[in-house]
Each structure stands twice: as structure tokens, then as C-alpha cells.
Amino acid sequence: MKYLYVQIIGTIKQGILEDLIGSLNFLPFKVIKKNDYPLFAFEPRRNQYYAKKIIEHLISNMPADCEKLIAITDIDLCTPVLTFVFGEAQLGGSVGIVSMNRLKQEFYSLPANNGLLIKRLLKVCLHELGHCYGLVHCSNSKCVMYLSNNIISLDNKGKKFCVKCEEFFDKRTRKENYG
Amino acid sequence: MARNRILVVDDEEIMRSSLTDWLKEDGYYVQAVEDGYKAIEKVKEEEWDLAVVDLKMPKIDGLEVLEKIRKMKPEVPVIIVTAYAAIDTAVMAIKAGAADYIVKPFNPEEISVVIAKLLEHRRLIKENIGLRKELNKRHKFQDLIGKSPKIGKVIEMIRTVAPTKSTVLIKGESGTGKELVARAIHDLGPRKKCPFIAAACGAIPESLLEAELFGYEKGAFTGAVSQHKGRIELADKSTLFLDEIGDISLKTQVNLLRFIQEREFRRVGGKDPIKVDIRIIVATNKNLEQMITNGEFREDLYYRFNVIAIEVPPLRERTEDIPLLAEHFLEKFSLDTGKKIYGLSDESMRILMEYNWPGNIRQLANTIEHAIVVANELEIQVCDFPGYIIASKVEDRTKAATRETPQSLEELEKECIVNTLKINNWNIQKSANILGINRVTLYNKIKKYGLEKPK
Questions:
Q1: pLDDT of the residue at B455
Q2: Domain B144-313 is of which CATH architecture?
Q3: N or C: where does chain A have the smaller number of CB atoms within 10 Å of the terminal CB?
């Protein structure tokens, strides 16, 4: 039996994780909690963490029964070429990572809004999982695979796959789960 | 739909892989290389829609790579990226032809927009080229290009006479495509599988023309070391095209007339008559009727040729065909020179449409070839045309101006200078050349008349 692993890096508010997992129900899941921050991935000049370094670390420590792994963290993520990312994943691979840092209203100096945070988190998680299953960005602005480079674009897109992406995703999950 | 192909060039592995991963998520086909030389090889050997090149690299830096790519494949946009922002390098990069200059790390929104915009522009260029080719095909009959009513009439006549054996007289100014019409008649007729034999009567010295047309036997004259078949004999069962028929001497006209009447001839120095079955097409840019009146052309020979007459219009009478012809030559000479030029600016097309074209299509072809060779951009500009094309425009405008209102010599001079500068985008050297003065004199006159380059 293969599982969707959800790994928490750092802290996450109670209730958010439960709501999130309830929506990612296409695979049985397991949750791992790790409070330690991945200092090996920290870039002091940018005060951010390199997403790819964390992903590489996660890959090398993947549990044997892991189908896919989504890491959720509250640290700010970036890549060497991009100023920030909401999330990052291996295209057609096993691991993705999502940062809540820029999904929180507080980042934009607005009052906290857990409901909005959960919606945003779900979209980014599904987006990165889509990449893990081989989906690339979609040109349909309502599809969850649409590329969102800012929070407004993220809020405007849908929380589901479009018909085409869903078909692709279903085929891939059936193939990977059942051979 | 084929994926866009992006080449990433960066000496740092972490940068290469990071950018490659991100671009792949966007659905692009991406290849990454670690140095400029490899990038140049890749661009030479494969088709790319975009290159993202790091500025600072060992061995060969990003600006050199940019210059090489621009020379080989100017249609490929190049984004220069750098972690070290500096205004002077940004200016250098843009002047060298970079499509954009971006500092690492990029804002994801900014880089997405830049890439999408450049790829869309590239897609439109490709689509434009494809549509123009399609349009050219539709308006191409054999090698004749055009959609004007006048060329339509010529094409209709070709279709009508091609299946027959009738002799055809093609009339038209020099450079209008008379030989193309003759070839089209041959290629659409029953003799198309045989070679089309042509003789440029005006180009062959009179003393050699008879031998060239009728052939000669060995020893017929000094230098005739072996038997030689003439054009008439070579055209047996096929088509003989005699160009510039108005240039042949009266003596040769007599021999030709005899041949046409009897359909047999003797080689120079030969005894035995040779019968041939040929279809004759002749062409001239001269007024044969006037030549008959002047005693320079035989009337009986004229009537033998003038069974079916096709008049090929001069280019100035079919200006609506100029854009199609210009596009055709653009494609042809771009291929020949290996230079990628994608079109003509609106202003340069307008100049072509308004020019008188005394040399007709041949002159247009030469003009486009000249422009492609000298062009520095992806589109032909007015300043790429030969000087006489631009000068005629300036002259027309100056003439128009002087006809309308009386002007002093100074006012005329000022107007001429302003027009020349405008047409040449204020290129001082080119404008000075056209005006026939040196740069310093032109600068002085600009100062004298208080002229300023528009912003």
C-alpha cells in the first residue's frame, strides 16, 4: 500500500492540517511532523530557504511506502533564479513543498484569515502534486494548474483541475497506484 | 502544437537546473548548457524559440554569445540575465540586440511576462511568414506572380495558347518577365517534357548568331573544329524561344523567314536540309511596327511571328503586384544569402509602390537583393534601398513642392534636407551621400536651418 505523505516542517495551526488533508483524498495519507528547520537550505543573503535543497533532502529520506510527499512549511521559499515561490515540486517526481509564508494575510499586513489560508494552501498543494504527477502549467486561468505568480492570481484561480488536467491527473494516479 | 524551445546558458549548475526546472513546469522544452561555445553550437545546429544567457561566464561572456546568436539567427530573441545589475552593461546588452536584460533572482511574475511576450512575438513572426508564403503560392502561376487584372489577362492568354502549336509574339519592356511567360507556355503545353531552348538574339554577336541558331558543320569556317548543333536543331519536338527578336539583322531575318516557311534548314556549311518540328515563341521590347516602317524589320517575318501576341505589362501598370513580388524576392534572397529578413517596413513598401520602375521586375529584384545584403535589422528599412530609389522619392517631393508654391533657393534646400533626413531616419552619413555633400556640410546646414531630430 502506498501513501500520500504530508510532512510538516516547522509549525502549523491546529485545524488547518485537518481541513487540508480532508481535501487531498485521492490517496490514503500519513502525516509526519518535524519541528526542525532545514538550516542546510538557508540562504542568509536572502533570508530565505532554497526549495530544491529541501526537496533533495526529502527525496533521500523518503519512507518506503511513500507514493508522493508534500511538505508544508511556514518558512519563506525561493529558488536561485526566482525571488520567491509559493511552492516547488519535482516534475513527474515524488516530492513537492509548499510554503504558507506568503499565503497568510499577515504577510501583506492584513488581519489573519484562516479560511483564506486553507483555500490558498489547498490550491498550492494540489498544484504541486499536479506537477508531481507530470502536469505542467495550464493556460486556463481557472484551473489549479494555472501559474500564479502573485497572491491575487492565486485567489482568482479555481481550486480544482480543469477537465483536461483532471483527465491527465486521473490517468496518472490510476497508473501509478494500480500499475 | 509544438512546444516552444528554450536554451538556457549559465556556467553555474544550480542556476541552470533551477531555471530549467521552472521553465519545464511551464511546459517548455528546455536544454541547458554550461558555456557560451556550447550554446553557439546548439544555436547553429538546432532551432530555438528563445535563449536565456547569463552575462558573466568564463571563456566567453554573455554579450559575445548574444552577438554570435544575433549574427546566425537574428530571429531568436535573447534574454541576458545577471546577478550583477549595472546600467552600462544593460545598455550594452540592449544595444547589442538583447530582447531584455533581467537581474537574478527574478520576480516570477516579471520573468513569466517577459518570456510569454517574446514567445508570442516569435509565434506571430512565424505565422506571418507562413501566411505570406501561402498567399504567394496562391498568387503564383508557374513562376509568374501577381493578382492584378493585367497579369490575370496574361495568365489567361498563356492557358489558352499553351496547348496549341501557334507561334507567339511576347511584347513588353525589358525586365517584365517575357521569358517567364515563354517558359510557362512551354511548361503547360504538350512539349513540356522536352527541354526549353532559348536564344538571346540581342546578346549574341551578329557574326555568330546564324551559327548559333542553325549550327555548323566541321570546317564551315575558321574555328569550326567539329560539327555543332544549333538552337533550332536542339529544339526539335520542343519549344524554341527567341528573345530580343528586334535585334537581329535583316540577313538573319531572311534566313529565319525561310526556315519558318519551309520548316527545314541547313547548318552553316552544310548541304543536306534538316527538318524539325518546333514551336516558336519570340519576344521583343522594341516596337516592331515602327521598325517595319523604318525598314529595319521585315513585314513578312513580323506576320509570321505575330500569330498570337501577348502583351506583358510594365510593373508601374500593375503596382498592386509589387508587395507580392517584393515578398517573393525577399524570401528568395534571404535563402540565397542566408540572412533572415522577415519583411519590409511600411515606409519602405510605400516607397516601392510609388517608384516608377523603368527596369521593371528585374530592377525590383535587384533592389530587394541590395536591401537584404545591406540590412542590419529583421525588417528592410528605407535606408537599405539603393540611393537612386530614395533620391527619386526626394526629387518627386521637391518637384511637387516647387510646382505648388514659389519658393526661395534656401527654402528649397531646407525642404530637400528635411525630406532626406526623414526618409533615412536621420542617418547623417546616408543622407549626406544622397544629397552629394559631406557630413560636416550637412551638420552645418542642420544647424543653419535649426533642424532637430524628432524624439
A1: 65
A2: 3-Layer(aba) Sandwich (3.40)
A3: C
